[in-house]
Amino acid sequence: MKFKFLVPLLLSGAYSFGQNFGPNITGNSETNFQYLNTDTLIGAIQPSEKSTLNSYTNVNYTLKGFRAGVRIESYLPHTLGYPNRFSGTGLGSRYVGYTNKMIDVTVGNFYEQFGSGMIFRSYEARSLGVDNALDGLKVRFNPVPGAEIKAVYGRSRFSFDNGNVINSDGIIRGIDGTIDFSSFYNLLADSKFKLSIGGSFVSKNQKAFHALYNMPENVGSYGGRFDAKYKRFYISGEHVIKEQDPSNDNGYIFNYGHGTYVSAGYSQKGLGIVLSAKSIDNMSFRSDPNALLTDLNINFLPALTKAHTYNLAATLYPYATQPQGEIAFQGDIFYKIKKKTPLGGKYGTTINVNFAIAFAPNRNLGQVDSLQRVMYQTGVFDMSDSLFHRDFNIEIKKKINKKMKIGVKYFNFMFNNDINIVTKEAHGYIESHIGVVDFTYKFNRKHSLRAEVQGLFTKQDRGNWSTVQLEYNVSPSWFVSILDQYNYGHSDPNRRIHYLTASAGYLFGSSRFIVTYGKQREGIFCVGGICRPVPATNGLTLTFTSSF
């Protein structure tokens, strides 16, 4: 019960203290409440509590170089789809720190990333139920301008059980260094060529047990990276190696792992081109080798697919990065046709073309050392012809006049459901075509209407889908929206279901309140190549966010 009064007390105390005595106090709060119904048609089940609640409040205090903060969390019970070990109300994180021009020290809970994250990333993705914050010590040291050294030491957050944070048994230790030659003794200060280099080393320590295999107590991972720019061109790359790390993910093999990521691009006014490639093999890296799903990840493998936002493209066949092995490529081109041209019209026309593809690595199974559990050989960008995923999409946006804008999109997906399972009703490859028309009309400075019409066409899985969404905005405070996702092409007429959802929101200052009522189908929810399953639900959702 004491936590019931703690949050308002912290907020009111923080406000008055900051107003009267001058330290900088900031924070934010988020609450998600659901009242759920049973819906046998879509497979939604009402929990025994009938409702769920996830709530978070952060309070951060800074005074000159000193800083401190806490986060209070509450799961009463947790939102459906979260791990069952998320329960209760309590202190979710706490930290203190000090910063000056040369050093930055944090003790407690913190987030950090080395390079692209392939070797180490502690982060929070609340919508996915992911929070692998380290509990320990972080130090940043800048001995001279242009040089930075970072070191971390701690245990990963694992769960929040009955109001108590539970960390992993494994200890994570890492060091990272970066030199930017533009600032480092001004070596490239006057040059059009810019270069920075970096390197990382991360190790985990845990006494893991397996009935058949002698598990290593310490596992190291290391790598280097660079970023180079010349005028309008840039290229960056990173390569990492992970030592023998038998785990549940890889079937307890003793192969080394490797990851390579390369990105290059060119930009000028009205034109941008980005080409990316990555090669991953056996790069699942956890502080506990027996962990599953999104638990206790030490690293993060960047996705080489566009983050789609339209309903059908984003929710039906999302692709998750394959840490056990994938070779992927992506090209992204942005072009704006000039104003006052036949194709550009009065306001110009923007075109975005994106292509992404991923394959399985080519593994030589003949080179096996079964006694040492080294089960195959493969190389960097050694690619097989086994397709995981293909995504081609093109988007055209045009402003017709001062009141009207229109966008037209086309998506073509080829999806291997045997590798990345998102549906129980299909096997093998699923090909789909998606068309979208997005229309916005401004009646005046405050009132506007936005409409989307989407269609997905496939001969596999559950057949064709459509989505219609209407959203009316009264700037700057109100909006109302209705969305209908309809599986009209299902082979079973009884399962041609409308997933209808209505929502309304009110914004006041830095706060926002949204109420939503409707159905959500069972499926997979993904952000940045990381996914979690979500169950079917039918009910009312209240969301409140605020910052101060």
SSE map:
Elements: H1 2-21, E1 24-36, E2 51-63, E3 66-75, E4 88-99, E5 103-110, E6 112-114, E7 120-122, E8 124-125, E9 130-131, E10 134-141, E11 147-161, E12 164-167, E13 171-180, E14 193-205, E15 218-230, E16 233-242, E17 257-268, E18 271-281, H2 311-315, E19 325-337, E20 349-361, E21 383-399, E22 404-416, E23 429-442, E24 447-457, E25 465-474, E26 478-486, E27 498-508, E28 511-520, E29 523-527, E30 530-534, E31 537-547
Antiparallel strand pairs: 1-2, 1-31, 2-3, 3-4, 4-5, 5-10, 6-7, 8-9, 10-11, 11-12, 11-13, 13-14, 14-15, 15-16, 16-17, 17-18, 18-19, 19-20, 20-21, 21-22, 22-23, 23-24, 24-25, 25-26, 26-27, 27-28, 28-31, 29-30
Structural account:
- With about 550 residues, the protein is mainly beta.
- Helix content is about 5%, strand content about 55%.
- It is built from 2 helices and 31 strands.
- It has helices spanning about 1-20, 310-315; strands spanning about 25-35, 50-65, 65-75, 90-100, 105-110, 110-115, 120, 125, 130, 135-140, 145-160, 165, 170-180, 195-205, 220-230, 235-240, 255-270, 270-280, 325-335, 350-360, 385-400, 405-415, 430-440, 445-455, 465-475, 480-485, 500-510, 510-520, 525, 530-535, 535-545.
- The strands form 4 sheets. It has a 24-stranded antiparallel β-barrel. Strands 6-7 form a two-stranded antiparallel ribbon.
